[in-house]
Amino acid sequence: MTNPKTFALKGSICFSADPGHLVSEENAYVICENGKCAGVYRELPERFRGIPCTDAGNSLIIPGLTDLHLHAPQYSFRGTHMDLELLDWLDTVTFPEEARYADLEYAGKAYRIFADDLKKSFTTRACIFGTLHVEATELLMDLTEETGIKAYIGKVNMDRNGPEDLQEESAESSAKATVRWLEDAQVKYRNVRPILTPRFIPSCTDELMTKLSAIQQNYRLPVQSHLSENPGEADWVKDLCPDSEFYGAAYDRFGLFGGEGCPTIMAHCVHSSEEEIALMKQRGVYVAHCPQSNTNLSSGIAPVRRFMEKGLNMGLGTDIAGGHSLSMLRTAADAVQVSKLRWRLADDSQKALSFAEAFYLASAGGGSFFGSTGAFLEGYDFDALILDDSFWAYPGTLTAGERLERLAYIGDERCIAGKYVCGEKLF
Question: 248, exposed or middle or buried, with CB in 10 Å at 0-12, 13-18, 19+?
């Protein structure tokens, strides 16, 4: 009997094996064996002769992309209120919208739209914020599970500095709700896993952070939060945490900033000091670079070249709805564009990103948070996208790498002709 997770795809194959360059193979085969990549070949090896093969013609075949940071409950208002900075944006539109997820009927409608669009997107892996509501977060997990996408999803914790209808009563009630959620979530799903999600330091008291630390150690959970995103936010943290030398230290004092047994994603890191960068490197923290959101909310331009030179773990995030597009290809193009502005206007010693580097961050860079995924390398999870770029006519001939770069700037989800996660075909 044929193994349904052993097959080949044939087409114009393009992926990043390292940040420096794109690997391109025209008219080649990429092989999935039992849900894992078995390599890229110009001719099928003898041992794979006779396996099912999908001939995608001249279409591009690329690895699935990883979104390291987005907020599912904010998807409903993406592309609006972009004239506000972060803290005003949270108070004016974000918190009122997230409070609506106490209503499961509303949450169901909104999360169904989100899950349907996520399935149709370039994303095969994602790290997602829910809200502080247990039932709504479980509903989000249910719907995401159905998409076949692999995801970490977090119930948000916040017991201070929120509006009355979007703030947990106490650190104790927040911790109890988190444990109740975890007891359901940790065994219920195949594609979705829980991730501990303190919203950010201004939303979490020391008492809550202490309790979350104990929960993290007990359940061995990864962590996601925000770091040094906006100057006003960073100043606020200084006032709230005068004993912490810098923003990241306010997480680290509770053991929620990476290190052994605590894989951690910190989104933004636009204004991270050298001391903070050094601690992120030491603790193995992942930076989720969110170029679109950082621009829309006037937060600034993260020093991504510096992070790469220091060898930090890093990927990209759409940061819906600070970011307005769910497209990870668009996010890669945005990362290139904002790095050019930083190089030209702020620090000409920090070379702008190449497209190959940005695509690496969107694929293998962010994918490594999930393990070996995001590249067509032997033994990696087989996540793949088939992209038909014939919608955008061209009078000459382009290489696979040029076609991929072009799609990042002018393409959209219409080009996705096939999507696979761990060897399973989603469509």
Answer: buried
Complete DSSP assignment for 199-212: --GGGS-HHHHHHH
Closest CA to 302 of 293, 252, 281: 293
Whole-number pLDDT of residue 4:
81
Which H or E run contains 153?
strand 150-154
Q: Which residues of the chain have pLDDT under 50?
A: 1
Task: Report in angstroms the alpha-carbon separations of 162 from 94, 159, 165, 203, 323.
Answer: 11, 7, 8, 7, 22
Residue with tokens 């169901």, as numbered in its chain? 108
What's the distance, CA 189 to chain centroid? 19
Amino acid at 288: A
User: How long, in residues, is the chain?
Assistant: 427
Reported in sequence order, the residue ranges of 247-393 that DSSP labels E, i.e. its strands, are 264-268, 286-289, 313-316, 384-387
Question: How confident is the model at residue 1, as a pLDDT?
Answer: 43
- Residue 413, phi then psi, degrees to nearest 5: -65, -15
Q: Are 60 and 400 in contact (CB under 8 A)?
A: yes
| CA–CA dist 247, 257 (Å, integer) | 11
Report yes or no: 93 and 321 within 8 Å, Cβ to Cβ.
no
Beta-bridge partners for 86: none
SS3 at position 26: strand
* All residues at 6 or more sequence positions from 153 whose CB lies less than 8 Å from its CB, including other chains: 72, 128, 129, 130, 137, 140, 141, 144, 185, 192, 193, 194, 195
How far, in Å, CA of 253 to CA of 243, rounded?
Answer: 10
The DSSP secondary-structure symbol of 90 reads I
The pLDDT value recorded for residue 2 is 59
Distances (CA, A) of 21 to 243, 362, 405: 44, 14, 12
Contact yes or no for 140/153 (Cβ under 8 A): yes
pLDDT at residue 157 in the model: 98
| Helix, strand, coil percentages in the chain from 3-state DSSP, rounded to 5 | 45, 25, 35
Nearest to 369 by CA among 201, 206, 125: 125
Can you tell me whether residue 247 is helix, strand or coil? helix
**Model pLDDT, residue 20:** 86
Residue 172 amino acid letter: E
**Cα torsion through 105, 111, 116, 119, rounded to 10:** -150
In sequence order, which residues have a C-beta less than 8 Å from that of residue 213 and are 6 or more positions away?
A: 254, 255, 256
